[in-house]
Predict the structure.
Amino acid sequence: MAKRLLFLLRLYVTLLLLFVTQKLVFMLFNLPYAEGTTAGGWLGVLLHGLRLDSVTACYLMVVPVLVVTLSFFLYKIPVKRVLTFYYALAAPLMAVAFAADMVLYRFWGAKMDAADLIYAANPADMLASLTLPAIIIGALLLGLLVFHYLRRLRHATPQGFDKVHPASSLVMLVVLVLQFVGIRGGVSDSTANVSYAYFSSTPFLNHSAINPLFNVTHSLFKTEDLAAQFPFYDSERLADLTADAYPVDGTPADTLLTVTRPDILLVIWEGAGSEMMLNDSVGPNFLRWKDRGVFFSQCYANSFRTDRGLVSIVNGWPSLPTTSLMKKADMGRRLPSMARALQRAGYATAFLYGGDIDFTNMRGHLSESGFEQVAGQEYFSAARVRSNWGVADEELFRLLPTAPRHPSLTALLTLSSHEPWDVPEPGKTRGSRIKYNPLQDARRNAFAYTDACLGTLLDSLSRTPSWDSLLVVVVADHGVPVDGLQPDGKHLATRIPILWVGGAVKQPRTIDLLMNQSDLATTLLAQLGLADSSFRFSRNVLAPSYRRPFAVNAYKNGLYYIDTTGVTDYDCISRSETDATYLSDTLRLQRTQALLQLWYTATGRLR
């Protein structure tokens, strides 16, 4: 029995050592990208990459574990001979993933994933990016790697095992449980994804830490030809239907701010739909501050989930009804980014979340989008008040870090107003300092708690010297209907408030223009004189060219299109309007289809 367990442990360690060696070779081969990297950075690559290396090793050990299990009943099975056939398949996979990733990274500066496999159908296109020396080096390296991997794996494998009582095989149940946990990436809410490897504001270090075999296989199941999904119209008709949808003139007709480079605090409020927050008993603090700032009253969330809403806010990109862009590896690098645009203007950037920052690849996407610091619940290790999802919102706000330099963008994502609506009771929860009037309805009560946290934060900030140069932007990631129905039940549940407050705001006002949360990026950047043409689907709603107000909201496999003529509720599976459409209109339906085609085509062509 001990010999069998020792073999599995030895094989696991062998795979980890091979993966660690890959990282060192990868970094040495792409040394120009490592310029300025310290020894601590190299060590960080190895340490933070171990988690994905372990997941990949557990996947690769599925067959060896199966063979060991069978050996309890068929003890004469020639283990080494049988597994050599498996190693002959696994070794080339490991070698090809590593070698191709390493060589192509030198030219592309990006990790290879399943999307790049389309080039395999046309090798000439793939080789077009490579020089002849690179091809020769790659081929030689590939052969040596396959030989080396096969030899190391065989070396870790015994010829066979001694006979033991079949009852001993029950020990393998423990092994199988450990393997399942290893494949999953642990016991936290998030399952294994490339975000596990992100630890640095330097993209090359994060890329180096990612296991190449995991990256390719994991992205394989998330790859789809987006550009070909909705071919409704020819190019001429498509251009006609979308001609005035996204005007390129970003010059604002009005100035909302008193300073051109304010420090920006972006508060992304979990689920804070207008139906909920514009209520005296639920959002008294929000309503109080609404009268002191710039309030966008007719904004709609782009989607119904946090991972999709974050992409719309941070990247100014529409949410797609059939897929989550945040979950797609490397998408943060391909999309435009508010953080990157501000970073180029000298801003320090940080994103803080009180929960599992690796959930839905959040850490990886935000890091690729230009946030220098991305931290989750581990940042709040000293927090005393916690909930099911992580630290309570009062801890998130209380531990708001002092900006490392001026100007800065600090984004906070709240979590207390997420089901199961677990929030501290005022005066009854140890460590909690927040006072509010508790409500009987758990859903409303959770929002009332976060509202009290926000009010305490804003009151505190308004008494500091930095208030005069501070802009606080409060926006929801998506809406939550008051009656508990899902957002795809009523389009009004997708309406969310956006509020700008702070000393940097010139004067209070309400803006009633129909818009989306994805328009926040360009509208804000234009106020700072930083309009960026890469935000092709984010509109400056204060520009004179904004003459066709409309909003969209993508729910699962469906889309609301909202304008002054009515609402089209479009089902992407049947490719037709649903009976929830309000005031059916042919042109509005065509515009809905045209937008789907435009978004998917543009997203599918991102590189």
Notes: Residues 2-220 form one domain. The chain has two domains: 2-220, 246-549. The chain has a mean pLDDT of 89.
